[in-house]
Every structure is written in structure tokens, then in C-alpha cells.
Amino acid sequence: MTLSRGALLGAAALLATPSLSRAQGQARLLVVGGGFGGASAAAFARRRYPDLAVTLVEPKTRFVTCPYGNLVIGGVRQMGDITHGYDGLRARGVRVVHDWATGIDAAAKRVRLGGGETLAYDRLILSPGIALRWGAIEGYDEAASERLPHAWVPGDGAQTLLLRRQLEEMPDGGVVGLAIPGNPFRCPPGPYERISMIAAYLKRHKPRSKILALDAKDAFSKQGLFQDGWNALYPGMIEWVPANRDGRVTRVDAAERVLETEFGTRHKVDVANVIPPQSAARIAIEAGLTDQSGWAPVNPVTLESRVAPGIHVVGDANIPGPMPKSGYIANSTAKQAVASAVASLRGEAPPQALYYNTCYSHVGEDYGISIVGIFRPNAEGTAIVEVPNSGGVSPRGDLPEQRRLEATYADSWYESITKDMFA
Amino acid sequence: MIRITLVAAALAAGLPLAGARAQAPLVAEGCIGCHGPNGAGAGGVPALAGRDRAELVALMAAFRANERPATIMGRVARGYTEAEIAAAADHFARLPR
């Protein structure tokens, strides 16, 4: 059988989905924020909807990932391993603008940039990340973070490297203190992976040292698995203090490196990693997209703002229901947001939503654990729920092969998801 | 006209045709964060691209039923419907190995 070109074109025309052209030209998708949510959205949009004009606004020319930052702090990865550029997105046809988005006019569908340019859009994907709430812990402001690093918003990587350097400079027998926030915050297992990677470094190089983890919560993600691993790999090194044992840090003295808790206990430490309470990034707050919680409420099916139509808020800035503020959820929700935005531009119903998450954590360099979650909107589309009897954490017990495999799968995840975003 | 019908049927069935663009179902997007763009595999995580469709469906069914040892795939497989697994398997089976 031979097929004529005319027949192929005719068939393609019969099946073509409605085009994304506007009277004035291509439909315009604007993405603000070039992290896990934004880069995923831009890459996916170009891959799936080639007739869409995609612009990405991101001030930094290099993106340092939060995932695997704890391995840099532990000294088993280098900053270059977790740093990515935007040339891959440019090669996919994304217009990348390195500037700050300084304001959103939702009614006029325009975003103002720091450099003076104004970008018009048909749909906006907003993935601005988080802001650290300076002052929420008394004495912890931006200046204090130069002495007591948070290393929680990597920026250009300086905070991550500062914490690493302080660990290297600490004498053996020192105490590393951490202040860990209450829920919700970016990367729920992150502080505990960080404790693990710091412990791995200390065990090898400064074995008489201790870690004092002061927590504003009474329980944490993958807790049993982390604590099993700590007992197995770093016995006696880590003290975790929950809120109900006066673990909540309310004040710091940066000069003295003192972490002070709710009931006035003053812990003087040699290195302090203060992870402060967080909110959605400033642009989301200033655009009026957040509620009293400091985070942005969104439609569970489309990720569209509950406040401003035409703006889809993805990544850590939104209120994700039972889902974690994770890179994988940012990637997954970004794709659903783009598909929903395109459906809306075509006058179609949004696609059925399904959100996927796996978070691996390193307890040791070759000792990985994970949590899996698959989530869907409920039948009414009013809330996101986890699929019953699915997901969950790795099994507990003495399972060396499981731990070894999960550490290698973590590496595969990092390679795959960053390729999906940046290659 | 019969040619057009055949081509249309092939396109509708998602069969590869020169000039037609393979469109991943959204459900398959969840897989590629570990199994790699286009399901090409990454490090110790196996490739999905070009695998036999029936094999992929049977593997997921076995993971779902806890009939196959799993590191994480049992937890994953129980989150999807049979129709979703079939759609993802269709997609990856059509991709070049």
C-alpha cells in the first residue's frame, strides 16, 4: 500500500486539534520562575504544543537545585553537579528572559519586569518558589543568615557552600545545631536528609562531634526510616528534639551562635543551620494570590489561582492539599497546569488530573529511602486526595539491598528529572 | 477516500506514521521523572521505551498484586487504574528502544 502525501495531509487535517493561533499570532504562554515548576512547564509546553509561544522569566542564568544540595553539604557531590543552565530550553524554542518579574496585572494579563519590559500573556504559569520569613524567628534576618546559614533557598549556591565551609572549619568534637520549621515548608524530608549527610561527613572526619536537631514539630516525614538509619549508621551522634520536648527555636543570637527555644533553653553550638518558616515568594503575595496562610490557593484540577483567573500557580508557592512541596510534585503539577491552560485557550475542558511524587532521601551515601504518592482530585474537583492503598514509604527492617538500590534510584531520578527540565 | 480512512484509523490508534507526532498520554509523564525522557532509562532504572506492551502491562499487574518483588514499583503501581497503565504501556511500547 502506498500513501500519497495528499492523503496524509487530508487525514492530518481531519484529526488536527484546534490550533492555538490568536488573531494577532501565536498563543502566548508566559512562565515566571525557572526552577522545578517553571522549567518543567516551559520544556513540556514546547514538547507537547509546538505551536505555542513560550517565554520563561528567571533572574538567574544558572539554577542550583535544592535536591542533592545536602550531598554537596556532606561533601559527596560538587556544586557543578547540581547546577543547570537554560541553553537546553532555548534550543527547544523557549524565549528565556533573565530578569526579575516585579509585578503582575492579572486583569490586563501583563507581567512587569525589573528591566522595564512588560510581557503580555494569554496564560501565565507562576512558579516563583518560596520566601524565607525573616524575623519569624527573632534575630534571624538576612544578615544573620551570613553567619547562621539556612541553605534552603540555594540562589547561586553561596548558602550551601557557606554551610559546607563552616562544617569543614569546625573542630572535631563540635556541635552542629539545626533549627527545623513546622509544616508546611519546602521539602518535608529535606532537613532529615541534611542531618544524615552532615552525620556522614562528621563520622568520617570529625567522629567526636554531635548534631542537635531542634524541631518545631513532633513528627516528620519518613521518621521511622530516618531514625532506624541514624541508629545503624551514626549511633549516638544525633539528638532530635521534638516541639513537645522544647524543640521549637523562637530566637537566635547570631553573634554567639545560640539557638533559643520556646521555653528559654539556650543551646550554644559551633555551626548553626537555621531553616526558618516560609511562605510563597513575594511576587505571589504582592499579586494578591495568597491567603492568610501565606500560600496560594489553587483549583485542584487546573492549578489555576482561586483569586486570579488565567494564572496557574505551581511549585512550592501553592497550597497542594496532601501533596508535599517537592520537586517531583512541581514537575507533575506544572505539566497539568500547562495542559489545562492550553485546553482553556482551545475552549476545551481540562484534562483529567493525576499527580505523581517520589521523594528519595539519602541516609548514607549508599543508603536510600523513599516516599511515593499518587494523588487525584476528588469526584467534585474540590480537593486533592491521595489514591487509597497506594504509595507510602519504604519498608522498615534490615534490608541492605533495598537501601542500596534506592540510593542508586535516587541518582537516576535526579538525572532523569533534570533532563526533563533542562536538556 | 479509503486511503484517508486507513490513515485516519492508524492515527487514531496511535500507530506510528511518518509525519505524525507521537503524543504521550499525560499519565506517562509521571514515569519519566525516574525512567528518563521518552522512557529511555537512567542508571539503574530500566528503560520503558520499545518494551513489549503486554510485558509492561503484566509487570504492572504483578507489582500491583504484590506478586513480584519490588523496591518501589509496588507502591507506584497501586496508584493507577488498569486503563491508565494500558495507555502508558501503549505509549512506551511504540517508542524506539
Automatic annotation (TrEMBL), chain A:
Residues 1-23 form the signal peptide. This is NADPH-dependent 2,4-dienoyl-CoA reductase, sulfur reductase. The keyword Signal applies. Residues 160-276 form the Sulfide dehydrogenase [flavocytochrome c] flavoprotein chain central domain. GO terms for molecular function: flavin adenine dinucleotide binding; oxidoreductase activity. It comes from Falsiroseomonas stagni DSM 19981. Pfam families: FCSD-flav_bind, FCSD_central, Pyr_redox_2. Keywords: FAD, Flavoprotein, Signal. Transmembrane segments: none annotated. Residues 28-140 form the FAD/NAD(P)-binding domain. InterPro entries: FAD/NAD-bd_sf, FAD/NAD-binding_dom, FAD/NAD-linked_Rdtase_dimer_sf, FCSD_central, FlavoCytC_S_DH_flav-bd, FlavoCytC_S_DH_flav-bd_sf, SQRD. The lineage of its organism: Bacteria, Pseudomonadati, Pseudomonadota, Alphaproteobacteria, Acetobacterales. Residues 351-422 form the Flavocytochrome c sulphide dehydrogenase flavin-binding domain.
Automatic annotation (TrEMBL), chain B:
Gene3D superfamilies: Cytochrome c-like domain. Pfam families: Cytochrom_C. InterPro entries: Cyt_c-like_dom, Cyt_c-like_dom_sf, Cytochrome_c_Oxidase_Subunit. The keyword Flavoprotein does not apply. GO terms for molecular function: electron transfer activity; heme binding; metal ion binding. It comes from the Bacteria. Residues 1-24 form the signal peptide. Residues 9-96 form the Cytochrome c domain. This is Cytochrome c553. Keywords: Electron transport, Heme, Iron, Metal-binding, Signal, Transport.
